[in-house]
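quick one before i forget lol
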Amino acid sequence: MGGRGTAPEVAGVSGALDRELAYHEKLYSGFAQQHFAKAAVRELRAHMVRRILALTGAGKTSRVLSLGCGIGDTELLLAPHVGEVLGIDLSPAAIRQARADAARLGIHNVHFEQATTAQGRYDVVIAIFFLHHLPDEELAALPKTLKDLLVPAGAFYSLDPSRHRLSGAVGRRLIPKLMKRYQTEDERELDPETTADLFRKAGFEAKVSMYDFGSSPLAGLFPSWAAGYRLARALDDSLLNGPFFQQRGSNFEITLENGP
């Protein structure tokens, strides 16, 4: 995605990608499939799909590109609502699982490729828990890449952990080993407005909103507790009306529209 800069920076980016790939190949060797199949996690993913549809305007004729699709659990839920989905990921294990699940479920309008870039133009591009894995120079280059991927008036949606999230601060203090289990060496939490400014500087109108306060972390800690997730999600919908909970929320959304 975009230029790489000087030779030391190239080496740094390559090393980060190698570490990301090694982590995710291990993650997708069995743990992720079991974890993502549990009831609360599926409820979370279904809620994400509803948000994507509402905020991007994606519909039955939309072509959707998903960056960093993983094993495709979100994409497979999204596919029945849109025209076509292409998911790309650097992990061969993830793509094998995503393709197998699409075949098993008989979903024919979703395709998965092992890649870090895509060709063509799309009505919607999504990036679910993806931006915070990108090295800084890759993240800075992404807005220009999106200009080439989106059709005029196309939309972009991302979801990533906030640097200001209270759940992260509490988790690092109370359950540091569990927190590390779900994180790679190179990923980091992002500042919502600083991240949005990268897209604004490229000419996008970027809107930032807080997705949740406690419901997503709860789904991660108690993945089988669907009723608990639904209760926490309803509570989040109320809490996020308050400025404190907006500022200290767990994960933030960025939505963009590509100008005509």
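fyi The first strand starts at residue 63 and ends at 67.
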